[in-house]
Inverse folding.
DNA sequence: GTAGGGTTAG
């Protein structure tokens, strides 16, 4: 025996030790690869598998594939691990590629191979592929073991094909707890909760997953009480049970109860618990609380994941918290989090909603893969910022890249055309929706078209479209036309439209807002008053106006009538100065319209100043350089719009206001919306 | 078995 042979185990051990480290750099990876490939005695199943999983952890699947090709005697088990790893860590593009390569390498697939492929079909929603794989398994005559059968069950569950799932289940000669759990999951997904429960009751053995499956099953049906009963009865509660229950409360809007459970968990929480709670606050539109939760998570030293960041970015997008969003982006880069389509889209969404369309574009172009969500976000973002032409260009590029547009794409595109006054382009794409793109126009697309036509002054065309559209127009569609009538001062048509609106939906609270607009526009203030009284009587609820601004990473919210801000007195005094300055430069406050205009679903006139003015004043006081960015939950009122134009000019600052619908870039006395919003 | 993404018109 020569010395090399004696040393072999130690080399293998050393390599193994290297590979088992959580982080391995590329150089080390290459070294190990060379070592294994040049020494065929090192090509053991264990080392091969460990090397492959290191590649997967370092997101270097191409290394792994190259490595497999160069093995002296690749086995199906090596390729199987490859497929399994690419399913677990890949993007859904690779795993079938590895299967093809395996065939090219003359390695025969086995039951394990197909089991992994089925897992991939479940993970990446590849329905037709999964069905084909089932056929292939039958054709190749493999013995269906319980593992493969359970894989099929999972797959048909994902596909929502209850019949096939039942067939597979019934044909199983024996079923272990995992198989039964899979069937419960299928039944629950297809809404057969009673069947799921019966199976659950009949099971000879239950593990924690069985109980948890039933919890999610009831949660999905929004039957939180039953879910809670199961949760309380569960003798083997683990962290998943708690997480599932917390998520159930979040999804049903009972965020406080979710929080109680969360608090009761103490140190039993894991990162999913935190992510669930953060996402819950975002879903309940408690964005500031979501951020607080994240800060708490950091205090407790729990590592945020990609999922945390997605929820957090969504919170930033809603809050308009650009600084915080930027900080998260930096964190993602610094900690090497994987920017997949979901996280990428969350970034794009955050940037454009926080007023930075440029950075949104950078992120967008930097994504290696873009799905329809990403394209929709960028198209919508461009449109909202008044870049209609660029929105159309993006749409055309999307077509080139063979991504099929959906209904949302057209909402973004058409509203983009509308904001930029691109009438003929909008008309063209609308008319091509079904024939060319196979997307059925919905009420929202008709809404966009009415807005587009009306905005540009084609009131007759807009009316004709409403009268001939195949869907019953709702109050929003009529309202779009009404708004256009008001802008283009067509009182006669306004009255007609209002009539139609009230006939159509006499109980819709929103109609009273319209009606009062019409009266206000013809100075029938008495009728406006009556209208407002009717709204109060009917209990039509109006959202209070609220503007927020971010200063040094802190979001300051100004709600109407709320004087609780610590620097309120100072802000108020400064606002007095601004108002005086505005007056000196000829700005007359639009008091009549402020008093009677309930266009913005709010009665900010109850207090002296609208929330956006307070936020802008605070911004001017606190931010020395760069644009002032304000986010408002409702539409900007006419008076504030005029005032802001002048403030931008007098203070020589760019003021970017995001309102309910779009962005206003105020600069040097002008606004990017060209006074139509 | 538990957690994450996009949209319009008043």
């Amino acid at each position: 025996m020569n010395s090399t042979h004696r040393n072999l185990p130690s080399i293998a051990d050393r390599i193994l030790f290297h590979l088992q480290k959580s982080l391995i750099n590329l150089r080390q990876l290459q070294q190990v690869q060379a070592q294994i490939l040049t020494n065929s005695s090192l090509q053991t199943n264990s080392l091969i598998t460990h090397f492959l999983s290191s590649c997967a952890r370092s997101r270097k699947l191409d290394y792994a594939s190259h490595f497999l090709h160069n093995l002296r005697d690749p086995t199906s088990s090596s390729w199987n691990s490859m497929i399994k790893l690419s399913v677990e860590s890949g993007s859904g593009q690779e795993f079938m590629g590895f299967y093809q390569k395996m065939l090219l390498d003359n390695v025969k697939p086995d039951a394990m191979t197909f089991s992994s492929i089925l897992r991939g079909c479940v993970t990446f929603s590849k329905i037709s592929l999964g069905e084909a794989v089932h056929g292939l398994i039958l054709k190749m005559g493999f013995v269906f073991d319980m593992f493969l059968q359970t894989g099929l069950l999972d797959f048909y569950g994902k596909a929502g094909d209850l019949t096939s799932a039942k067939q597979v289940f019934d044909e199983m000669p024996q079923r272990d707890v995992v198989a039964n759990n899979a069937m419960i999951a299928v039944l629950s997904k297809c809404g057969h909760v009673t069947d799921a429960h019966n199976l659950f009751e009949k099971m000879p053995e239950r593990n924690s997953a069985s109980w948890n499956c039933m919890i999610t099953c009831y949660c999905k049906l929004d039957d939180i009480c039953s879910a809670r009963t199961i949760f309380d009865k569960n003798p083997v509660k683990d962290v998943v049970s708690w997480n599932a229950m917390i998520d159930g409360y979040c999804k049903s809007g009972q965020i406080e109860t979710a929080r109680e459970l969360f608090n009761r968990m103490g140190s039993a929480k894991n990162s999913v618990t935190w992510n669930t709670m953060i996402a819950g606050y975002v879903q309940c539109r408690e964005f500031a609380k979501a951020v607080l939760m994240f800060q708490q998570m950091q205090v407790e030293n729990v590592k945020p994941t990609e999922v945390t960041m997605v929820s957090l970015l969504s919170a930033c997008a809603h809050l308009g918290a650009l600084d915080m969003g930027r900080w998260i982006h930096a964190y993602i880069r610094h900690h090497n989090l994987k920017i997949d389509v979901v996280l990428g889209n969350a970034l794009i969404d955050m940037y454009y909603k926080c007023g930075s369309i440029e950075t949104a574009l950078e992120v967008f172009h930097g994504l290696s893969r873009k799905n329809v969500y990403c394209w929709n976000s960028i198209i919508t973002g461009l449109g909202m910022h008044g870049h209609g032409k660029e929105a159309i260009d993006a749409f055309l590029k999307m077509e080139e890249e063979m991504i099929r547009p959906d209904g949302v794409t057209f909402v973004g595109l058409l509203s983009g055309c509308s904001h930029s006054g691109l009438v003929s382009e909008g008309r063209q794409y609308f008319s091509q929706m079904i024939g060319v793109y196979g997307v059925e126009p919905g009420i929202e697309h008709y809404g966009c078209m009415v807005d587009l036509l009306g905005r540009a002054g084609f009131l007759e065309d807009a009316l004709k479209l409403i009268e001939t559209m195949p869907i019953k127009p709702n109050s929003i569609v009529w309202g779009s036309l009404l708004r256009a009538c008001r802008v283009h001062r067509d009182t006669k048509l306004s009255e007609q439209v209002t009539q139609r609106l009230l006939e159509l939906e006499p109980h819709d609270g929103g109609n009273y807002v319209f009606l009062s607009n019409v009266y206000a526009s013809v100075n029938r203030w008495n009728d406006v008053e009556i209208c407002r009284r009717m709204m109060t009587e009917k209990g039509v609820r109006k959202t209070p106006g609220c503007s927020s601004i971010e200063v040094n990473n802190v979001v300051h919210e100004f709600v109407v009538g709320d004087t609780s801000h610590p620097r309120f007195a100072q802000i108020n005094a400064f606002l007095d100065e601004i108002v005086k300055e505005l007056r000196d430069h000829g700005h007359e406050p639009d008091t009549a319209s402020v008093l009677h205009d309930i266009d913005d679903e709010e009665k900010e006139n109850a207090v002296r100043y609208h929330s956006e003015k307070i936020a802008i004043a605070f911004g001017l006081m606190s931010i020395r350089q760069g644009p002032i960015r304000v986010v408002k939950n409702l539409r900007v009122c006419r008076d504030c719009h005029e005032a802001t134009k002048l403030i931008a000019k007098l203070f020589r600052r760019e003021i970017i206001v995001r309102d309910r619908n779009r962005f206003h870039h105020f600069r040097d006395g002008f606004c990017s919306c060209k006074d139509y919003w």
Confidence is low (pLDDT under 50) at residues 592-607 of chain A. The two ends of chain A are 86 Å apart (CA to CA).
